[in-house]
Amino acid sequence: MQEIAVETFGAMAKTEKIAFILEQVRLCLDCNDYMRAQILARKINPRVFVVDTGKEKKKPKEGDAVIEEAPPEIPSLLELKRMYYELMIRYHSHKNDYLEICRSYHAIYDTSTMKEDPLQSTPMLRKICWYLVLSPHDPMQSSLLNSTLEDKKLQDLPKFRALLKHFVTMEVIHWDAFWAFYEGEFNMESSLPGGVLGPRAFEDLRQRVIEHNILVVSKYYSRIRLVRFAELLNLSLQETEKHLSEMVVSKAFIAKVDRPAGIVSFQIRKDSNETLNSWATSIERLLDLVEKSCHQIHRETMVHRVTLKA
């Protein structure tokens, strides 16, 4: 069944093709064949689930292949969309790709049937919040974080709104107080639909808090002693240096550590154009200063000569 290229069958209905490919993906995931599951899943373009209600169906012309109607047991396009993203959640959970898991949950959450049912949308929104927080910081994660904060339904979940606010506000998060406040909510995820948070989730959550705190410190300090840095992060010197090095290697920011002096220096990343513009501006200022100095010297000389003649 995995070898059948159903996408080449021109007369088969679109929903029937999608359902068949999704069944192939499910079988691969059940067999732990994640590579083949990824290849099969790429045959489905997520944009196919966007239904354009204003677009009229084209009438078939003479000579065109006749597309058969889908059998009644084939799920609707909306149900297929949910099935697709649930399979994608299974696939990305294997790789602990939290951002892609979050995007899959968000796609399910955006369906009309999900938003109309608070019993389903509320647990889904909780999942979105947790996986957003667990995702490493990058532009896509930041954009999704801010858009989720604007969701009106998040007002019914004040704890999760505060959770996202923690990672948007540029303030240091104290891990002990943070975990004491959210431990119950974190452990409660095991009883919610959609699967539990993975066994690595706790360590990854702590890692995200540390990364957030390092980013906050890098925003407010240009130079800081390593001892004070470790004190702000509530970590040992070795752990602080380890996490700092990992973030520098991942190019989250630029920093240098003077280990003998115990000082961390943060620098603003500049591209070549900014460096060249800065250099040109500095040269221009220098030439202006030289010109003004020459003018002042010449002026004082003239005044001095006039005074001597008088």
UniProtKB/TrEMBL annotation:
SUPFAM superfamilies: Winged helix' DNA-binding domain. Coiled coil: none annotated. Residues 100-271 form the PCI domain. GO terms for cellular component: cytoplasm; nucleus; proteasome regulatory particle, lid subcomplex. Pfam families: PCI, PSMD12-CSN4_N, RPN5_C. Keywords: Proteasome. InterPro entries: PCI_dom (IPR000717), PSMD12-CSN4-like_N (IPR054559), PSMD12/CSN4 (IPR040134), RPN5_C (IPR040896), WH-like_DNA-bd_sf (IPR036388), WH_DNA-bd_sf (IPR036390). Belongs to the proteasome subunit p55 family. Component of the 19S regulatory particle (RP/PA700) lid subcomplex of the 26S proteasome. The 26S proteasome is composed of a core protease (CP), known as the 20S proteasome, capped at one or both ends by the 19S regulatory particle (RP/PA700). The RP/PA700 complex is composed of at least 17 different subunits in two subcomplexes, the base and the lid, which form the portions proximal and distal to the 20S proteolytic core, respectively. This is PCI domain-containing protein. It comes from Ceratopteris richardii (Triangle waterfern).
